[in-house]
Amino acid sequence: MKTKFPDPIVALPEADIPLEGVRAYLSQSEDHQIIFMEFSKDAIVPEHSHESQWAVVLVGRIDIVIGGEERRLGKGDQYFIPKDVPHSAKVYAGYADVTFFNQKNRYCKK
């Protein structure tokens, strides 16, 4: 898969996101994480919740449900998920985003 991210991002450790067709690069802090994600296949993200999350879509499309509200997002759109709010998504092949998680251990290094 040809990456959508530049070398400094690709040099970051990969995150252990358990979805087929996703590659994610992890920027780790003492109290939060930033993930640079790209999808080579369509993926279904089952409903779940965690600490707050914010993301901006770089390319592609995602259909996301946040607290029961459905949204279709594309390039340049952003979303915010408050802490403990259930959410799910369908992510389409070709999608990439930058996601901030307000927790230090959402994902681990592969």
So how many helices? 1
Mean pLDDT, all residues? 96
As a percent range, the share of helical residues equals under 10%
Distance between the termini: 18 Å
SS elements, strand count: 9
Low-pLDDT sequence parts: none
Strand order in the sheet with the most strands? 1-2-9-4-7
Series of secondary-structure elements, N-terminal to C-terminal: HEEEEEEEEE
The amount of beta strand, in percent, is over 45%
- Biggest beta sheet attributes: 5 strands, antiparallel
Structural class estimated from helices and strands: mainly beta
**What would you call the shape?**
globular
Gyration radius, in Å: 13 Å
A few lines on this structure:
This protein is mainly beta and 110 residues long. It has one helix at residues 7-10; strands at 22-28, 33-39, 43-48, 53-59, 61-66, 69-74, 78-81, 87-91, 96-101.
Task: Break the fold down into its secondary structure elements and pairings.
Layout: H1 7-10, E1 22-28, E2 33-39, E3 43-48, E4 53-59, E5 61-66, E6 69-74, E7 78-81, E8 87-91, E9 96-101
Antiparallel strand pairs: 1-2, 2-9, 3-8, 4-7, 4-9, 5-6, 5-8
Keywords:
single chain, mainly beta, five-stranded antiparallel beta sheet, 110 residues
What does this structure look like?
The protein is mainly β and 110 residues long. Helices cover 4% and strands 49% of the residues. The chain contains one helix and nine strands. It has one helix spanning 7-10; strands spanning 22-28, 33-39, 43-48, 53-59, 61-66, 69-74, 78-81, 87-91, 96-101. The strands form two sheets. It has a five-stranded antiparallel β-sheet with strand order 1-2-9-4-7, with no helix packed on it.
